[in-house]
Amino acid sequence: MNRTLAPGANLTALRDHNAALVLGLLRDAGPDGASRAELADRTGLTPQAVSKITGRLRVAGLAAEAGRRASTGGKPATALRLLPEAAHAIGVHLERDALTVTLVDLSGAEAATRTSPLDLGAGAEAVLDAVAAEVARVRAEAGGSLLGVLGAGVALPGPLDHRTGVLQRVTGMPRWDGFPLRDAFAERLGMPVVVDKDTNAAALGLVLRGCVGAAGSFAYLHLGTGLGAGLVLGGEVHRGARTGAGEFGHQVLQLDGPPCRCGNRGCIEVLCLDAVARGDTAEAARLLGTGAANLVRLLDIDLVLLGGGVLLNASGAYAAGVRDVLGGAPPVAVVPAGERTVVEGAAELVLASLFGRGGRDRHRALEQAGLAAPSGLTAPSPGTSRP
Amino acid sequence: MNRTLAPGANLTALRDHNAALVLGLLRDAGPDGASRAELADRTGLTPQAVSKITGRLRVAGLAAEAGRRASTGGKPATALRLLPEAAHAIGVHLERDALTVTLVDLSGAEAATRTSPLDLGAGAEAVLDAVAAEVARVRAEAGGSLLGVLGAGVALPGPLDHRTGVLQRVTGMPRWDGFPLRDAFAERLGMPVVVDKDTNAAALGLVLRGCVGAAGSFAYLHLGTGLGAGLVLGGEVHRGARTGAGEFGHQVLQLDGPPCRCGNRGCIEVLCLDAVARGDTAEAARLLGTGAANLVRLLDIDLVLLGGGVLLNASGAYAAGVRDVLGGAPPVAVVPAGERTVVEGAAELVLASLFGRGGRDRHRALEQAGLAAPSGLTAPSPGTSRP
DNA sequence: CCACTTTGGCAACGCTGTTGCGAAACCGCA
DNA sequence: TGCGGTTTCGCAACAGCGTTGCCAAAGTGG
Description:
five-stranded mixed sheet; alpha/beta; DNA-binding
């Protein structure tokens, strides 16, 4: 077992953990906010600890008081809410023929978004130029404010390595093989960059945006030019050893089926895309449902989200068809996801570490957002709201 | 998302986390032990912190100094090792027709094991009697020492709920439906009890016993009377929403295949067991490999362990057959597991919380093992080894 | 023999969440 | 209107965590 994955914890880690936890709850609470007592309940911390933590958040400009709640028999609670404009993140979605860039605030709300054509096969320099230009335009559109952009998340089809940010043999585009995308983008954009597979980014975004309700685990199935999946297990995106998890499309469903470009026979992708090409949506949905059922049984999840161009064009039919195969027991919800899951998720790659959702460097993210100043200076008291 | 799954952390949680981490490293180090400096390196804690933690472990009787290492140019390191006999755990494996009970020490080494026939369908009282009797005999065999038995882990086929310890419709044995196994066992045996599915217990045991090397994720495939799997993802057993994860056997591999008792067609279990019944080991291995390949691609794991009676009877042939289907890239290791993985894993269900491997109540476990005395009394200095 | 390296303990320290206590603000009832 | 009860929340003192600074011990190598 890899012990380096479970490091020792010190007081800094403890503080950052709790701060991220509270920030996440505040984000989930939305503009109405949450009271300190409520936060204490949800976290298991004492009210005093929550007061100290929210005090730090207020000093850092990440949270503020937001009016009073109705009393429940005693002193009315003062709501605390996230200040979404305290920081922003950029999401970049690279497709074979298109580039989408978005700028979102801490709550995930979109400040500006642009889509433009792209030739991903044109090579690194051309793509870097295009992305840098679009990022600049999006920032200008959003008001030109250069304040508080925490970083950029980049989502693309893969295969790639999330930890190092290095691309592998992108199908049909050998020029990208071995390209250190993260470092190149970070240098060019002048900000921290996180790279992930498109389906993983989408799945992460769905978690952070509260689109999955109370489900701790779910699968996001994406049917576009290919068929892939993003897996969230126990609240965390499961990427596997080589960021290769989610290879849903090359699941063998028919041992003696038609050959696939991957070398096997009867992959669900081939069967499904054939049905789509024939216009047989019902059969495509049935195949998708069979694959989803395999996945649901293997991982015991109770939510399946559907996305990608093909599925969204007939989301009702696909959802119904998949639901039909899955049956009712155990009860699995099948829901179509939004239109821009991937680019929104790309931006969330940056925000995840702030909100205790398994980002790669929570401490740096919190520091960058104004918490935990590197110099050992203690922040002054925020001053409480008194008459 | 379920925020109750990510609670706030206080100083107690921090101390317990680090203590469990160090205990886990000491267990992995085996009888040769590990030096404080080495522990500091692996945990990322400062040497001083490690000294304090190991001091507490020594006071609690869980660790001791174990001689000197060769010098590397300075003062030679003093090795610290786990004292395995400081505590014990009981593992119970319930099968349809057999009962196995084992008593292991902290290192997982077996002190005594007994197997006896059992009629699982005979109902709760008869089974409780049998288990209690066997547990008493095993304790007697192990020397009669009643000291330091932390609890019992119970592994059985399921379906069941790990968190509550309640059984669901055990296939073919309706009398067990809804039976609160954990609480009934806990009362009868007079000790804490953890219940889990047999394949999950086996997978957990393989992690804790260091049988999986540096792999953070792997699948344990078990082919006995049925076909199931235990999944470890990112170092943690993945149980899913209802402890139902690992339903490998009812993965559809042949859309128009023979009907299965689960209602679908072409489940891998039916296909595979048919091949086994025909004596066609090569075909069974090929089918198993195809299912394993689906799983490996979906989860991006690089280790598959094989267990269960059928597989172990011809482990070489099965491993080779599975390896053949999986191919070499990405490199997936296929290895047969040991004979008693389930009952050993059942005992590890109890030990897991001590060693920072995701047990359900680490604090209680550490307290029970002699650490973190409930009264606020600080433990005295352990006294260092001086001439 | 002496410089150097490495291990590891002691004491003081900074920072964490916790506890004890009290003020503020509201409800409900007399 | 007055008073007790309830709930929220801050201040101050506190215990306990890992960290830092310093030093002793015990080897190696010139």
